[in-house]
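User: Fold this; tokens only.

Assistant: Input:
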Amino acid sequence: MISKNDLKRISDYLWEIPRDFKSGMKVPARFYASEKMLDQLFKDRSLEQLVNVATLPGVEKYALAMPDIHEGYGFPIGGVAGIDAETGVISPGGVGYDINCGVRLLRSEKSFDEIKHKLVDLVNQIQRDVPSGVGRGGRIKLEKESMDKILTLGARRAVELGYAKEEDLENCEERGSMPGADASAVSDRAKRRGYDQCGTLGSGNHFLEIQRVEQIFNQEAAKVFGLFKDQVTIMIHSGSRGLGHQVCTDYVRLMQSAMAKYNIRLPDQELACAPFSSPEGQQYFKAMAASANFAWANRLMMAYLIRQAWKQVIGQGELESVYDVAHNIAKIERHDMNRRISTNLYTNRTNHESDVNIKVKELIVHRKGATRAFGPGSKEVPEKYREVGQPVLIPGSMGTASYVLAGSGKAMQETFGSVCHGAGRRMSRAAAKKQIDAGKLKKDLEAKGIIIRCGSARGLAEEAPLAYKDIDNVVQVVAEAGLAQKVARLKPVGVVKGG
């Protein structure tokens, strides 16, 4: 068991479990948290899981966790690991079952006062138009050839089919189409589970949320992102649905049987993995990339349905994409492996002294319940955002705020350009169902001016704000640690959830 006495305090918001804590650790384990968050962390297996991540072959610098850390499958949720692409492994447990669960943010030209009299109608129309719930299919049915094109091309295929615009691709991580995707690596069973789920919401913590920009922290960055105070935005939080879940299931089994072949021994079988360069590792990467593409297309098709609902109810004004980020993914990235590097390596400023002895390495960066947060000057960031850094979208729990931040150079130094993906659970779904009265919760939220539409009382109780950490505290840790800069706080005014 890990206790506070085992921790080394690196800074006000950064803690380390040293490499000698457990036999087999190849690097220290580090996590971001305020001191008052620590007690919660000792209530589940998340820190133990983080230590186990530090034993993975090829792991570099640190096994990392963000302040929304909680227990997951294999990796803790909130976990990040950069693993050497030549000598290291890839692990489905480091990505998760909902591959590329992520967030797309749409911005309107309207202020809240301009549409508030139509808010109920808008929420109802969105709920009618976007199917949601476990296994729920939608109006868009994909035959095998169409499915394979979605898996290969991702959001690009949504544009080809007329569901989106070229600008939607620009404002998206990987332009919504991850290189290396191969539809043939996805099983027929996974494809069958996804054939009618493009353009659908799903269940659990997924949501469609109408929001009001409550506060602007950085006027310059907000202007670059197209955000202003009291503006209406819409956030889409969903992933690869049953298709991604089946891909993870398929490849966890494959990896578990392959580890003996490669003489890999780990303290937790949930971390089942294979060398990235192996046939099994490459096959999983191709299937995961295809699942990520499915998720980007899914969110973009939901955006299309939401835009149609907006036109029907509001009539005027376009909904433009701010950005779309993935939360559960493994990606090939190049990162500087020096422990002390200058922020200006990732900005447009030049400091020749800091350009000496740069050691760049190609890594497989696993982000499990964590999101990319690349800093200013990064070529992967759309050119129009490059001066301020990548838009970072952090959704809150139902009924609480969400945040828009901007990535930083310090995140590139310390966390492979990563931050938290949300508030993070503090209560299991089973515990939430026992403790929370869904009817009372709905009344309480509506009393705060938040319109709620949910397919079931169970789904409402499981996702209650009480079941999550305080999003303001989590984001404050990220900001104070210098991993991202707060840009705007978004307050929910209408929420549609799956059952």
